[in-house]
């Protein structure tokens, strides 16, 4: 009974902690920059003759960009990308359909026939020329902005990042992490096809909750020098907390029917979860049973990596 209560508490605690970034975001920048100003002033007093230490340009480079980057994510993904999709779907297409109705008013059947050809053509053209390129560009820009947010938030709370011991290990960890996350996403899509609809939907939701929690905490753990196996083991061992933490983002991103709109929702909200993950202290030790959902994809990723590296070494 105590174990069940502990699991429920950890899930609720994770859910609440995931929302704290919304509050922290608005005072974090101010506190970070106040600390930087105070630190710079103290150094200037101790080393008045040191030009480099008192340089205003250096101070400017270290200013926090958490709030600015978050607003930029909202502007790009919501104000440009999502808005353009809405204008096309609920503005341009209905207007073209109305024009065809006016033009072919005497022959409604002809108007519907023309519309059945024009609508797919316009949608395909819009998706190819605008949506797909902008989506790819936003993924790249968002990743850079997410990193800025994570680094500023980590320095505010933890100090200087530790990172991994070598460049080669860092690159290998990053590539392996991307592969594991991609395979885990595929695993989540696969379990959603379970013949029992409620069970498949629940399993898919659990996968997305844990994956989004990993996304949010990975920046912090990476800066702490945690390798991938440690990050995944920690999530599997304390899954109730991370299930609750990733739940708001998983539910909100699954509500839109469009993959691109879902991506917009994720990119708008994810900076808040990065901040929340950086501030959070996960609830641990409430469940003795590990949820080893990452184990299958780790085994597959290891096999792929070993085969690839083996071939390279043979050459």
Describe the structure.
The chain has 315 residues and is mainly α. It has one domain. 82% of the residues lie in helices and 0% in strands. It contains 11 helices and no strands. The chain is globular and about 80 Å long. The N and C termini lie far apart (58 Å).
Shape designation: globular
Query: What does the oligomeric state look like here?
Result: single chain
- Proportion of beta-strand residues: under 5%
Overall structural class, as computed from helix and strand content, comes to mainly alpha
Mean pLDDT metric: 84
Specify Rg, calculated over alpha carbons: 24 Å
Task: Tell me the major beta sheet.
Answer: none
GO biological process, one term: macroautophagy
Transmembrane segments: 74-96, 116-137, 170-190, 202-222, 234-252, 258-275
Main location: membrane
Protein name: Etoposide-induced protein 2.4 homolog
Q: How does the SSE layout of this entry go?
A:
Layout: H1 2-18, H2 21-46, H3 56-62, H4 66-103, H5 108-157, H6 167-191, H7 197-223, H8 228-237, H9 239-254, H10 259-279, H11 295-314
Helix pairs in contact: 1-9, 2-10, 4-5, 4-10, 5-10, 6-7, 6-11, 7-8, 7-9, 7-10, 9-10
In a nutshell, what does this entry contain?
With 315 residues, the chain is mostly helical. It contains eleven helices and no strands. Helix 6 crosses helix 11 and helix 9 runs antiparallel to helix 10.
Tag the structure with descriptive keywords.
315 residues, mainly alpha, globular
């Amino acid at each position: 009974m105590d174990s069940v209560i502990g699991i429920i508490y950890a899930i609720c605690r994770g859910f609440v902690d995931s929302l704290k970034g919304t509050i922290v975001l608005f005072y974090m920048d101010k506190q970070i920059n106040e600390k930087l100003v105070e630190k710079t002033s103290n150094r200037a007093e101790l080393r008045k003759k040191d030009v480099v230490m008192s340089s205003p340009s250096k101070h400017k480079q270290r200013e926090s960009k958490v709030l600015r980057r978050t607003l930029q994510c909202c502007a790009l993904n919501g104000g440009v990308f999502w808005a353009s999709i809405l204008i096309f779907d609920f503005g341009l297409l209905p207007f073209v359909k109305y024009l065809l109705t006016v033009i072919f008013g005497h022959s409604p059947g002809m108007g519907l026939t023309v519309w059945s050809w024009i609508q797919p053509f316009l949608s395909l053209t819009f998706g190819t020329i605008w949506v797909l390129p902008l989506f790819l560009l936003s993924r790249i820009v968002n990743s850079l902005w997410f990193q800025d947010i994570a680094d500023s938030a980590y320095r505010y709370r933890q100090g200087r990042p530790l990172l991994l011991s070598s460049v080669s290990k860092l690159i290998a960890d990053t590539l392996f992490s991307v592969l594991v996350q991609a395979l885990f996403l595929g695993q989540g899509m696969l379990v959603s096809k379970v013949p029992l609809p409620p069970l498949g939907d629940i399993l898919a939701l659990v996968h997305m909750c844990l994956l989004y929690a990993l996304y949010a905490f990975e920046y912090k753990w990476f800066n702490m020098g945690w390798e991938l196996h440690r990050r995944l083991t920690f999530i599997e061992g304390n899954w109730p907390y991370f299930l609750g933490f990733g739940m708001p983002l998983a539910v909100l991103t699954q509500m839109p029917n469009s993959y691109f709109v879902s991506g917009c929702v994720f990119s708008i909200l994810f900076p808040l979860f990065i901040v929340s993950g950086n501030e959070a202290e996960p609830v641990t030790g409430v469940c003795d049973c590990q949820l080893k959902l990452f184990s299958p994809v780790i085994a597959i990723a290891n096999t792929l990596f070993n085969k690839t590296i083996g071939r390279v070494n043979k050459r």
